[in-house]
Amino acid sequence: MTVLRQAICVIAILLLCVGLAVGQTAAPPPSKTPIEAAVGHIQAGRLPAAEAVLVKLIKESPNDPRVNETLAYLYNLKGEPARALLYWQRSIKIRPSGAAFAGLAATLAELGRDQEAETNFRKALSLEPGNLLASYNLAGLFLKREDFEQAAPLLEKVVRSAPGQPEPTYLLALCHSGRRRPEQAQATLLTLPAKARDREPIQLLLGSLALELKKPDEARKYFERVLQLNRASVQGAANLGALLALGADPARGIELLEQAWKSDKTSYLAGYNLALAYKQSGKPEQARSVLATLLTKGESGEIYNLLGSVEAALKNPKDAVSYLERAVELDPRESHVFDLGYQQLLTYSLKEAQATFQRGVERHPAAARLWMGLGTTFFAQARNEEAVTAYLRAAEKNDDPRVLRFLGNAYLTLNNPRDDVASRFRQYRRAHPDDAWANFYEGYGLSRAGDSEQALPLLQKAVQVDPKLAEGHLELGNVMARQGRVNDALASYQAAIAANPQYQQAYYRLGQTLMKAGRQAEAEVALKKHEELRAQEAAGNEARMQAVIRSLEGK
């Protein structure tokens, strides 16, 4: 759980900051009246004494708005919002004011009636646009529902009017973070004086922002400071532990996470990151135990996704798929869909994987690796035209070299050239002119289309850049054979075999070309080797397909 979400979970406590509203109604005169005495009792924490005075006053002056407001505020302080609500409503009927509407709104928020609370905060601001308390608390309502766009301008107004105040500045930074503006969030917090920044929530948020800005050393400094301020801080230990476990000091990271988890078995941050650290350090059993405890506190897609990867590490593919399916049900984010489809591919549940990736690309049409996964499910089923189409969609979204390899592998199996594939190869080669595979694929496409003249220099460059590119030598031999350059073709086929002694297609082409050249004995040797390798290749097809599937894993 992020610092942002932790803060939003507790934002409701800010909604009852209505004491200022009472104080704003009037300044006390030099001599103490009963109402001023009651306010004095409240300020001193003598709530029973204040209540006795106010109950008497309300009987004597039921239509005095200040008595009603003060009594309402008293009941807010006592944790009796239903009684407070009655007196805020009375006060508004007697004399509508921004302060009274703000108090009523805060009370409605405490009762969970957020929509009514929002309406009344807006009324408060329509009467008193400069009412900072109403702006502040209305922003709090928006933060509860993660509506950062509406919360931010309200908090900006508060911060401009009261610079240097930690709480509104912190919440404004949360808004910027929630709007994916980490630099602005960091700059907002750094406007606070150093002493004001030296608070645990602010240091935690600064650390999280530094991580988002790819500054792990800076993040570590902030998290270390949290533990200096409070050695028992679960959030500090969990954040620092998570950072170290994945980076500079895994042993200390796990130690800190274990400490945080031992202190608070309800901490999602500590438990999840400890399980992740255990899994990555080769301790899947311990990871499973922590996740099982976390699940007793509530389900989440993240927990089930990690549990699925743990079961996969424990060689329990059926359980892994079951947990990954639950992760997608709870949270169908792109990474969860990919992990489920990938695990289904690994277990050769091809129809299930196909359905997962198809639903995934419908939900996340810009996700290149989901298109790669879908293409691979088709490729594994020998549905190569569909595989090529899916890989092309992946190539539109991402310049990842793996996409071109997947596309090329599928395209090599087709019997007909495709202009859309040739165009994509051409685009990639122009962006990567010295990439052997880029030159090979464009040259191969041109060769398949019958354009030997344009194919030849591209294939020649491919094998110059990478002399071990067996596929390049093979296709170069095919071009030369079509041009009647028999000796050059034979040399290219032999170079393909030298680059890959198990390349059965190269033996076949070599044998056929030798046969046409009248070198029958040599041809028979090459064709016999081709037959042997073809039999071996059929037996190893599943292993090769597994290698293709596993190459998807790089994320």
Q: Which helices and strands, and how do they pair?
A:
Blueprint: H1 3-9, H2 19-23, H3 34-43, H4 47-60, H5 65-77, H6 81-94, H7 98-110, H8 114-127, H9 132-144, H10 148-161, H11 166-178, H12 182-189, H13 194-197, H14 200-212, H15 216-229, H16 234-245, H17 250-263, H18 268-280, H19 284-295, H20 301-313, H21 317-330, H22 334-346, H23 350-363, H24 368-380, H25 384-397, H26 401-412, H27 419-431, H28 436-448, H29 452-465, H30 470-482, H31 486-499, H32 504-516, H33 520-539, H34 541-550
Overall mean pLDDT: 90
- Helix/strand-derived category reads mainly alpha
The Cα radius of gyration reads: 35 Å
CATH topology of the largest domain: Serine Threonine Protein Phosphatase 5, Tetratricopeptide repeat
Please give the count of helices. 34
What's the helical proportion of residues? over 70%
Coarse shape: elongated
- Number of individual domains: 4
Q: Segments where pLDDT lies below 50 for 5+ residues?
A: 1-30
Describe the structure.
46% of the residues are buried. This protein folds into four domains: 3-216, Alpha Horseshoe (Serine Threonine Protein Phosphatase 5, Tetratricopeptide repeat), CATH 1.25.40; 231-331, Serine Threonine Protein Phosphatase 5, Tetratricopeptide repeat (Alpha Horseshoe), CATH 1.25.40; 332-415, Serine Threonine Protein Phosphatase 5, Tetratricopeptide repeat (Alpha Horseshoe), CATH 1.25.40.10; 417-529, Serine Threonine Protein Phosphatase 5, Tetratricopeptide repeat. It has 555 residues and is mainly alpha-helical. The chain is elongated and about 125 Å long. It contains 34 helices and no strands. α7 (98-110) packs parallel to α9 (132-144), α17 packs antiparallel against α18 and α24 (368-380) runs parallel beside α26. Mean pLDDT is 90; it is low at 1-30.
